Amino acid sequence: MDSQHTFSRRHFMGGAAAALGAMGLNPTAVIGAGLKPPPKGVEPLDPYDDLAKLSSNENPYGPSEKMLEAMKGAWKYSNRYGYPDGDILEKIAASHGVSTDHVMINAGSGETLRVAGLAFLRHEEKVVGVSPTYMTVYRTASGIDADVIDRPLLPDYTQDIDDLIEVTNRNYRDVGMVYICNPNNPTGVIVPSDDIRRLLDGIPEDIPVLIDEAYHHFIEDPRYETAIPYIKEGRKVLVTRTFSKIYGLAGMRLGYGVATPDMIDEMRDYATGSVNALVKWGGVAALEDREYEAWIKETSNTLRDQTADALRAQGFDVLPSETNFFMVRTGRPTAEVRAAFREHDVAVGRDFPPMLDWLRVSIGTEDEMKRFMTAWNQIFPDGMTAAESNGRS
User: What's the whole-model pTM score?
Assistant: First the structure.
């Protein structure tokens, strides 16, 4: 989808939402319009204390029917050590066109990020990245007395690649790793492929670059490309992926890293080997269930864009997201808005300093997004005017 098409579509949707409001119709009627029905067996799981859970970027539908069946069949291995695992490592490697010595599986991509921090950062070395972003690597650095050089985002909330190159080169002797979350969490904004190449070409080739692609499957922007081809070139790049998002296995914990074999070997001593039999079989089924993956992407992206356009029509700024969440500027302290949503049984995102008047909203089911908009319209009954009266200039 090119940028002109994106702008025109959003402009149209925003105008449509505004027109509905002018006619006195419920703006939530836009949410879910035009969605295809789910594949067989794809339904929200049991209610979670009757809460619309829009705070943790999860797949609200859970694993597909094929994944559940595969995990159910793996229970017979629960008492074994050397059990068949569906060739999960081979399946992941094949999906990226690499050999198995390029891949490490872990209990969620969070563990892969921690393992990378332990493997590539020494005491008093530095990891270079931006802020706000996903913090696991930074927390790992702090835990081993390494340092974090976190650079601010640009005014348009993109990552300043020129600044990251300059800072890395200036601190070259002390830099143990560069970290890029792409798309970035919490902003949902991508780093275009040209910028990734410029970063890799602009810093010393012996510095490891960790590129977190947890939300890769939701991206539609043609400027984005995965960084895995750089690994095939022999670059010192580690790409991390997860089954927690589009595949709905957040509670089961499965993620992995793709890197050159020498980097994987460096990381291996720090891994726990704690991935269980059930999720390995679930992961194999996930990679094969293209129908489910496509439906989750289409449904999540449609609900995201419809909700964001409804908020824009009320005068709120919403960052252009390529993930299963978005950020909206409320003009009020995030903690205050979050508490107001909890009174409506809706959970929304935590604080992300310094963006303390921006709210991160994960994409739930159609019903959950309607509940979100109903609560939003009660918290902000006059649109952006209500936020301005609470201190936004």
Answer: 0.86
